[in-house]
Write a structure and sequence with these properties.
The chain is an alpha+beta fold. The protein folds into two domains: 9-126, no CATH class; 142-209, no CATH class. The chain has six helices and six strands. It has helices at residues 33-36, 112-122, 127-136, 165-172, 195-213, 219-224, and strands spanning 9-14, 20-25, 46-55, 58-67, 90-100, 105-108. Strands 1, 2, 3, 4, 5 and 6 form a six-stranded antiparallel β-sheet that branches. It is globular, with a radius of gyration of 47 Å. Residues 1-5, 127-139 and 174-193 have low confidence and may be disordered.
Length: 225
């Protein structure tokens, strides 16, 4: 990257808590970038990686500066894109952009809004969500089937297992009880078994009445004696 000692440049500071802030440097110098991140010494503060992005037909490079050595509880909580998504940094980091052409590479002021767009691209964007959205808009195969071949409730296709309630009534009669879980339920006919016991009781009563009519009167015989 070419050093422009008198160039005003907007860079991004990635604070250790994960917040990103823009910083305009009037006299940008790469060797003094560690000071902009709040470090007193440049020890271990180096360029960690470079992200390459295409935007509006142009090519850009974003250099990440930071430290990989530091004290506990000073780890940077920001989720950086690959290839440093699993790398641990300490303290504040910095993002410096440049525009790449066929003949040269020159520094480019990077804003928070633009970095957010590039950030999504570096993570692969939201292509998976687009695929899901397209599959949801696919035409339902049941929409192509004639309505007379589908049930009125739910719009399911009629087959050997799924039938309409009206079809059941036409075949078995409207007096049949239709259960929500079963295809149908038969009525209870246990009262028909008890009927023979009532008939036997009537027969016994009739026999008893006939015997009472045949009783003898012994009063005439006694007078004859």
């Amino acid at each position: 990257m070419t050093d422009h000692k008198t160039q005003s440049l907007t860079i991004l500071i990635v604070e250790k808590m994960g917040t990103i802030k823009s910083l305009t440097v009037k006299d940008y110098k790469e060797e003094e970038l560690y000071k902009k991140c709040g470090f007193k010494k440049p020890d271990d503060f180096t360029k960690q990686t470079v992200f390459h992005v295409k935007h509006d037909g142009n090519k850009y490079a974003v250099a990440l500066y930071g430290k990989t050595d530091g004290k506990a509880n000073t780890e940077n909580k920001y989720d950086f894109p690959p290839p440093v998504d699993t790398k641990l940094f300490f303290g504040n980091c910095s993002l410096v952009a440049s525009k790449i052409t066929e003949h040269k590479e020159e520094l480019f002021s990077l804003t928070c809004e633009l970095w957010e767009k590039w950030y999504e691209k570096l993570f692969g964007g939201f292509e998976d969500l687009t695929v899901i959205h397209e599959s949801e808009e696919e035409e339902d195969e049941l929409d192509k089937i004639d309505s007379c071949k589908k049930t009125k409730k739910g719009g399911y296709l009629k087959d050997g297992f799924v039938v309409d309630e009206e079809d059941i009534e036409e075949e078995y009669g409207s007096d049949m009880d239709i259960d929500s879980n079963d295809e149908y339920s038969e009525t209870d006919d246990r009262h028909a078994i008890e009927q023979p016991e009532q008939d036997d009781a009537l027969v016994l009563e009739e026999i008893g009445s006939e015997l009472s009519e045949e009783s003898y009167d012994y009063s005439d015989n006694e007078d004859a004696k």
